[in-house]
Amino acid sequence: MYYKNFGENVTNPQLDTFAKDNLPPFEQWPEFINLAALDYPEKLNCAKTFLDDAVAEGSGERVVIITPEEEYTYARLQKDSNQIAHVLVDDCGLIPGNRVLLRAPNSYMMAACWFGVVKAGGIAVSTMPLFRAKELRVIIEKAQIKIALCDARLKDELISAQAESMLEQTLLFGESELEKKMSAKPENFENCPTNSDDTCLIAFTSGTTGNPKGTMHFHRDMLTICSAYSEPVLTPTTEDRFIGSPPLAFTFGLGGQLLFPMYARAATILLEQATPDLLLPAIKKYQASIVFTSPTAYRFLLSELKEGDLSSVRTCVSAGETLPKPTWDSWQEKTGLEILDGIGSTELLHIFMSTRTDDIRPGSTGKPISGYEAKVVDEDGHEVPPGTIGKLAVRGPTGCRYLADERQKKYVQNGWNLTGDAYQMDEDGYFWFKARTDDMIISSGYNIAGPEVETALMTHESVVECAVVGIPDLRRGSLVKAFVVLRQGFSGNAILVKELQDFVKNSIAPYKYPRALEFVDSLPKTETGKIQRFKLRQD
Predict the structure, then answer these.
(1) Cα 290 to Cα 269: distance, rounded to the nearest angstrom
(2) Is residue 342 within 8 Å of residue 365, measured between CB atoms?
(3) CA gap 513, 480 in Å, rounded
(4) pTM for the structure as a whole
């Protein structure tokens, strides 16, 4: 275990109230509707529903997680999660409400650690495997994290972050110390008696200028997304096998590749690397039946498909970026399968609007799912007539609660969640995506903040000024493009393009780097000196 300030005792109050203390003021919360119908008890630890109840109901020997190395049963996952919970409480001094950072690719141990944290009454804060020390430090400080569980292969950036943050303990797994400690622990654990409205997850959005937003979700929310979306839209059975590309650190991946299958007592296939070229053979090898991935991946798969590759698949889900109608049409024509397009957000935890197998209007995002309402509003929050483009407003049993963040007032207005998307609703109540209303670039399903990429570029000695925008791209949806003004003495050539791209990759998560880079003499600006990014997008 990696300690900072080794030897200092962890204080042991009965409860860490950090999450409750840092929820937004109640008057800034969205209006939560249709909660009564869900009828959650006051005391609820969601790990019981997903895991312990599955074993108690007789599904203990059913396979829950499939990896290229091994298959794991519900009983095995319960045992390992219980032992991890013991390690956290007995050895790390975790008390209910403590945040625990999780760092790993999609893997069995990532899932076991997530449930171990939740069983112990902790709050899981999952992070992208590609994050660098700089990005990890921001999350650690914002969520005030003192304990981390980390895949041993990814320790370097986290240990670097720990040296300059409040993180005190990093426990590694992957034939490492965590497994050794687990082996000495009891196989049973009494779940922390959390409330249904206690926070169990802080999910961080893609931040601008190094300041991501932490979204706080309750135990009840984990169950809500299953009963509101997965159960009625996907209709999974115990025989289904889920597979996908999004990381478990994304709420899209957490739901689609862990919570949804477990809620149905089905199985999930977890791949550490799920790029389109690896996803396709895995679908065939493991006979996956429900696929979660991005429009970018579906476009790639179209060119690689061979007869029989998708013989086991019955449902395809797309989210993370808009699904172009030509992609939907080509996929349906070539495979006979209809892609279920949906839109969700970290703030609402998962998909809140979707097409359905019996109600698809190609090119549309469909209608709100069970328990949710949506409307299109103008700048003043007034609903606009059908056919008018405006801001998408959503409310339901889940919603935005930012961790101590003034931006709560912008996202939630008049009780509705404003997602940052421009939409149009037709006369029949179907919603049609038009654009993002902010400067976030959605590329291959990733949310990339242009200002963060600009900040990374500006630290290179050759760059005097730059601007980053998203430009249309058939494969990725949008492409990150940087316009760079060089300092005197530097030459804008192919060598420098690659140097700058590699520089960004080493500064922030590699997927954020500008795939297109253009050297310019100056940037278009207003009279007050603000960069006119819309002009760059038009070029």
Answers:
(1) 10
(2) yes
(3) 7
(4) 0.85
Q: What angle do CA 449, 102, 60 make, to 5 degrees?
A: 125
259-311 pLDDT, tens digit each: 999 999 999 999 999 988 899 999 999 999 999 998 878 988 988 898 889 99
The residue among 58 and 321 whose pLDDT is bigger is 58
Rounded Cα gap, residues 191 and 117, in angstroms: 10
Select from 377, 358, 344 the least CA-distant residue to 447.
344
Mind listing the domains of the chain with CATH numbers? 2-51+69-217 (3.40.50.980), 225-436 (3.40.50.12780), 440-538 (3.30.300.30)
Query: How many whole angstroms separate alpha carbon 355 and alpha carbon 338?
Result: 10
Cβ 382 vs Cβ 18: under 8 Å? no
Say whether 525 sits in a helix, a strand or coil: strand
Q: Which helix (H) or strand (E) holds 73?
A: strand 71-73
Total residue count of the chain as it appears in this document = 539
DSSP strand pairing (169-173 vs 446-449): unpaired
Q: Which amino acid is at 282?
A: A
Neighbours of 358 (CB within 10 A): 5
Q: Taking Cα atoms as reference points, which of 374, 524, 512 lies closest to residue 441?
A: 512
DSSP 511: G
